[in-house]
Amino acid sequence: MFPTFLASCVVINSADDPDGPEAVVMRNNQFSISYFKTTFEDSNNLICSPVAARLGLAIFYHVSGPAVDEDLRTMLGLPVEKSACLTHQKDQQAQLVQTGYTQIYNMLCHNEDRPLEQEFFEVLDEHLDVIVEPVDFTDDVMTARTANVWIQSKSCGIDELVQEGDVWSGSQQFLMLFSAVTIPRIRFKVGFDPDRTIPVDFNFSNMVRSVPVMRGSFRVRCCIDEVLECIVVEIPFEDNSGLELLVVQPSIDQRLKDMVQQFTMECLNRIDGSLVERWVDIQLPKFSVAWKTNLKPILSKLTYDGIFELKDLRAFVSGGKEKLDQFYQHCYLKIDENGVEPPVQMLTAEAGENLLRFSATRPFMYIVRKRSDREIVFIGNYSRYVPDPDELF
Q1: What is the pTM of this model?
Q2: Residue 351's pLDDT is what?
């Protein structure tokens, strides 16, 4: 059982301006939640950036025909006017990366025998900062090496963007998009004391294992949601990042899988309306998550896979239409004790009986989002024990 917090629910009303900033954030977050629920596996540690995937898919709206247009508009909430969409995309990407903490890298590989249509090439190069690389798709080794050498040069925490088998050299392919979304170096606003990090048993989905767990008492926003049967803490990252970490821990009687299935935009709004600042004694494992997602089966489950199935993209000089063959997204995030400010000492008089204990020693869901407008940048879960060669006790 959880103690009860009184709360009010904040609802974003976008009816007055369907293309305004609040409406865009709401659509992005709705897409992020649906995307994560479709991707979720409690047997893995997942991280994805649906908002970045959304931007990547919208690239092809500029060369799509009527068969794919409606699919993209419905799925991504894009405007009918494609020039307006381009401006919107550019602004969205700029907002995500403007602080320098979130990094987005896109590489579009196309068949070297078919050059891209010049207008499409200029959109990719000048407006959306997409690297365009002609490749021989029949040589899967070289195609993978090209993408991996490029991403390694970015020093973003990802060394292998794609594997040879992802290219499928046995089939004819023309267009592939590879995307990396990372926050390789970020600190909490107030850090955990490394001297207080100790081994604690974590009930992973595949075993019980002792892992380094950070401990500290902080004055942060938190809430308990009786409907989802979970406790939520909001831990701010350093001010310059403009980001915060939302950790959602199911109650001891609630499975993460069941909680994720119930999670909706309405739940997130309710949580936001319930968050209140108070002293919280936090136990949170140190963890890093890297995960590659193949968007094709995800969008198929969401019934929006037309871009992968219908030859309706006018992307090449030679004419004709093609489909997007593959879209892989690889994300990376690392959480540790580092903070801009030293750990604070909680005064006993301040804490009293109001101290809430948050112990993330079972599988949990997490969200990294922008503080300014609550737009989800990353969403994922930490569930499975994976041996870490750098783990020290």
Answers
A1: 0.91
A2: 55
